[in-house]
Design brief:
The chain is built from five helices and no strands. By secondary structure, it is an all-alpha fold. The protein has one domain: Serine Threonine Protein Phosphatase 5, Tetratricopeptide repeat.
């Protein structure tokens, strides 16, 4: 997403959720697991910002699984995000 699209979507969380979901699906289809995880982290942030803690947890758990599988150090960051909404 372009920065302008992100700013516009954040003013309308439903659009942001739809855009991030679609982006995550596309990244999964092309096999880009790191970018898929990053997109899921952003999607979880939108959910958290709008008060949907359960959705944020669900999405962040998926991102954590991907990052852990890749043994990526950003898994620790996602673990911290999960701790904040638990």
């Amino acid at each position: 997403m372009s920065p302008d699209a992100v700013r516009s979507a954040l003013a309308q969380p439903d659009l942001a959720v739809a855009a991030y979901r679609r982006a995550a699906e596309l990244r999964e289809q092309v096999g880009d697991r790191y970018q898929q995880a990053q997109t899921l982290v952003r999607l979880g942030g939108v959910h958290a910002d709008t008060g949907d803690r359960q959705a944020a947890q669900d999405v962040w758990r998926n991102a954590l699984a991907l990052l852990t599988e890749m043994q990526h150090p950003e898994a620790e960051t996602v673990t911290g995000l999960l701790a904040k909404v638990s």
